[in-house]
Fold this sequence. Notes:
Layout: E1 9-14, H1 21-28, E2 34-40, H2 45-53, E3 60-64, H3 69-73, E4 78-81, H4 97-114, E5 119-122, H5 127-141, E6 149-152, H6 154-168, E7 179-181, E8 188-190, H7 201-212, H8 214-222, H9 230-247, E9 254-260, E10 270-278, E11 281-285, H10 293-318
Parallel strand pairs: 1-2, 1-4, 2-3, 4-5, 5-6
Antiparallel strand pairs: 6-9, 7-8, 9-10, 10-11
Helix pairs in contact: 1-9, 4-5, 5-10, 6-7
Amino acid sequence: MRRSVQLFFKVAVLGASGAVGQPLCLALVQNRKVSELRLYDIVSPLGDATDLSHIPRKVKVTGHLPKGIHRALEDADLVLISAGIPRSPGMFREDLFNANRHVIQDLSKEVAKYAPRAVIGIISDPLNSMVAVAAETLRQAGTYDPRKLFGISSLDTMRAQSMLADFTGNDPEQLHIPVLGGHSGQTIVPLFSQSGVPLTREEAEYLTHRVRRGGDVVVNAKGGRGSSSLSAAYAVADWADCVMRALDGEEGLVRSSMVESPLVPETTRFFASPVEFGKHGVQRVLPLPPLNEYEEEQLDRCLADLEKNIRKGLQFVTSKPSE
Ligand code: LMR
């Protein structure tokens, strides 16, 4: 029997004034599962919080600068990290590693200190390495719980849906395409064979290429004014909604996420795939569906790169232990 008391959640967005953070906060303030929305950033979170507080919703919105980060994080149920810099045309996501690794390490230390039980969703790029940086930082602080750390990779699933729909004329909302691997280059492996739409190998190659290049196309189209922000915020808001509903006991909620995964060898550790959420975060990593020959080849290539990206993130933290 479903209990009558519904849970509401305190959500902290770290990087709230950024290009993803702003539309994300606008979406979260409209989510009825959010009781408190805490905006943290190094610039202007107070103004954005005041702005959002004029929207007539029951949610309490507050803004926090670095000296008040503990107030942004204390008792938070869900922490979404979109902080860091975006790429410019001509850059790969990996080129952001040096700029963003310290940001993610420092914020993960604060999360370990003030919100050790929160579910954490990482958005910042390069995602494959940033998840590893966060995991190792939390582990060193003694608060790493593999059920609670996620890289949010569902933007790739959305791209696979919209690009297949664009190609075939199908309704994008009716298409289901699991995406495996990670969130850069050939680590992104969409399984178009699962869509129910018959495609030739050449068509699957073309669509896979389009999904992989999705972020680059936006970066180029924005011409130096950042990367995906609106679609990224949409993906994260949808992901966060599913996580909160699952924390509140709803079953069967699945989204593509990068987590510590039983689907890959110990040396790779983190892998994006459809994950079912539960009351404590990861409920279950769904088993892999059957892959066709093209997808098997792509998965092999993915794992080689993914392992390197993850090792780079782990080594950055282990070679520079927390003080
Ligand atoms: C994306 O996929 O759009 C984001 O990871 C941003 C980027 O730089 O591609």
